[in-house]
Amino acid sequence: MSNTNSPGSDPEFTGSSSGSAAQGESGDTAWQEYLTGGEHGAGVSGTGVSGADVSGGSVSGASASGDVEPEIPGTPRRVIGTPPPAVARTMLPASGHDGPQPPARELPAGPEDPVHAKRAERVVAACFLLSMLAGFGFLVAYSLIGVGTIEKVHHSNLALGLCLSLMMLLLAVGATIWVRHLMPNVELTEQRHPLASDRQDREAFKETFTEGAEASQFVKRPLVRRSLIAATVPLAIAPLFLLRDLGPLPGTSLDYTVWRKGLRLLIYGTNRPITPAEFSSPGSIISVVPEGYQDDFDALAKAAVVIIKFRPGQLQFTSENHAVPNKVVQNWTVDNIVAYSKICTHVGCPAALYEQTTHYILCPCHQSTFLATEGARVIFGPATRPLPQLPMGVDAQGYLIATGDFQEPVGPSFWERS
Amino acid sequence: MSVDRALEGVGGWLDDRFHGARGFRVFMRKIFPDHWSFLLGEIILYSFVILLLTGTFLTLWFQPSMTEVTYHGSYTPLDGVRMSQAYASTLHISFDVRGGLLIRQIHHWAADLFMAAIFAHMIRIFFTASYRKPREVNWLIGIILLTLGLIEGLFGYSLPDDLLSGAGLRILEGVTQSIPIVGTYLAFFLFGGAFPGNQIIPRLYILHVLVIPGLLLALVTAHLFIMFHQKHTQMPAKGHTNENVVGQPMYPYFMAKTGAFFFFTFAVLALAATFAQVNPIWLYGPYNPVAMSAGSQPDFYMGALEGSLRIMPAWQWVFFGHTFAFNVFVPALLPLGLVFGLAALWPFLEQWITGDRREHHINDRPRNAPTRTAIGIAVITFWGVLWAEGANDVIADHFDVPLYTITWIARIGIFVGPAIAYIVTKRICLGLQRKDNHLLEHGVETGIIRQMPGGEFIEETRPVDEEALAVLTARHNFPPALPPGDTAAGEVPPTGMRGTVGKVRQRLYRVVTESLPLPGPNGHGNGHGNGHAIEGEDGHERAALGPGEATGHGATGTGSTHGDTGDEHS
Q1: Is residue A218 assigned to a domain?
Q2: Is residue B488 within 8 angstroms of chain A, CB to CB?
Q3: Rounded Cα gap, residues B500 and B488, in angstroms
Q4: CB-CB neighbours of B341 under 10 Å
Q5: Are residues A209 and A261 located together in one domain of the fold?
Q6: Range of the domain at B56
Q7: Cβ within 8 Å, pair B195-A348
Q8: In the predicted model, what is the mean pLDDT of chain A?
Q9: pTM higher than 0.90, yes or no?
Q10: CA of A220 to nearest chain B CA: how many angstroms apart?
């Protein structure tokens, strides 16, 4: 703790005390002034730190020279190992009103229990060193364990993650012990000041603002003001126009799907056409897609279909095009196989679950439930409309085909849907 | 010493240019009050920092493109499968970049922690009433941050273009379409045409990595600056006043503590990412509009929205050739709009109802504002019912309860639950206040039984210590009463107190400020009658609303109906 600065070198740096080793009464008087003055300047005062807390003669085994200093009641004793207050302080105006006062010492320099602190120091250092080891472990693991197979990724993830976690955890634990057991415990009080400015400041602000407004002529010249406001209108609207090309207008595109007369139903996944004979076990369900659009997601998002096979008599038919609601249109079925849109009429998830015993089609997203034997009418959940039925027939080769598009828009409701 | 020289050298150099010595000194001595619940905000900040760090790492490999490719990477079960580049590059990050999986999982866990901490922080702020003047603006910023966080999270987990998140986007499309008049157009503009198109992933990407994080960063900064400028609130305790802040200084204490806390947060996230698999997109497979799996759940913070969609009955109007899809846009917009809207309005509503325009820097204990706390718990219950309903299929599966039963329970519970929660919470709060009063009046039981000369046994009590006293007496932070409304005397009441509005306000005032008064200043050892007299007949508990002091002016009485309690104590 050598003091290299000459007195008076830089009075602004209050933290770095400087001064000669010559001390005694005069030095301590300065120190006292320094303390009492500081309370006004900083607006911060220590509460939990008494003079006795600060003394701690054995801190870090420094010299015990502090003991010779006379004690001044009511002020913290100077901490061992810190340089005495600078003579330079006395060069500040004695009145103390002309400049900011240097602050009082508020934090003790060392912990109360040095033995405990020593132990804590070792624990903290151990944590940091172990953290370093874990950190190196991370680097080693990164270099040695590659990726490229699921197995290797698994090992790499474990090793890297463990090292990273330990590195962070030990840093955290070390730092926490440091704060709680090495740093002396303090509690300081800071004064709040009302947030509102005082009256003069507000008045001054008002004046300045008004002056500016007057000087700008903004208030006085409505022509300028109104034309400026008029000029900003297109400026505000322009971005909306610029965003117009984000997408095409919907038009009637939501009303139709790619299904049309003659299009074969291909099994989703294998993309093979299917005959009613192949699909003969009652209760089974498969997803089908229109031929030629197997990989066209935009088309499939509307055109996905499920076909379900029933026993004779299970389906409740209506003869013509929805003459009776909530019934299956018989002409559109083939051999007790019925085709429904797979796109849920709620918000468009694929209604992918089917319960054989109850004939429920269930959408896994929000549990809209449709009764397959009765035209897929809604029996529970937030969907409002049945799943539309796809008109279906067979072609010359005996494969299932569509005999037309859906008779109504599929999928979720939208404003233009009537 | 070298520190000296560094301060004078580097510090001097900087100070010559920026005049920082004084400002930084004040900054170093800034006081941070201590309470465990103040850490919640720090968790948010640090998960956000970790999100930025890990997110930047992920962008180095992630390809926000919906162009189809055939996968031939290290994850062999998907070898040869056609998928979008976004999905393929996410697989690449997970299986072909060293540490990629770890960072991806940290990113996802950090997002979950970020949102969880936001909820917890917001709940803390509400229940301790830290949103009161002068902190209303920060409360509003917080609500915007929460909303942005929800959107950011949704967009983030949608980017890998896997089957699960694709379903989420499909729902987003359905919800957008359901908006009256403009919905279909909005959906087409958002997706660049019909769903799914090939635009949505790149668009979400730029929103997710630039626009929303930019907004978040700006608002987080504003949030912190305002908090810094206004200074922290503190919990009621000995020596804590409305005019001071008690705690430890920024430098070195808070710096070290908060640094440690950053590492704790990081460590917990790293541990989670190491041992708890999250969002295993390789198991879901690439998105395909035809396919879907059961048990599809969004991330937890979207759960309430999901439940809201599930709980809604199938209502829809069709007229004049247009469809009003109430079954979709009502649950999508109403519940969350209601909760966030009420939250945003609450500070101002409370101010208007109670007429309280003072600055508050000491937090309320939740029990000391029974109505506010009850409203908070009711809202949480409302949210909780929606959240649980969002997992109704999982609950049905695990607990073997019929799915529709759960939905029906939720449909009823959404109304009944919050009501019960409100009533029960209010009673609990008043009960806790009563317990506090009991402690104040009779002191702490010591467990020592003494026999009196007359043969009577009594238990000795000792007065509560000063620390506890400061906490127990921190009550009645509402203004004593509103100015009277229309009076028979013909005096003109102030604006805001006249007519129906004034009557409503008086009524609301009585509900919102309902709270037990503190026992009188000489209440200690004052006999047994006190506590019960205060509880009084039918809800006169609010009788004496002290002027916000902690020293037992509680029983000064505010009107004729309360004279009895006032007499009792004086």
Answers
A1: yes
A2: no
A3: 16
A4: 12
A5: no
A6: 31-233+253-291
A7: yes
A8: 80
A9: no
A10: 34
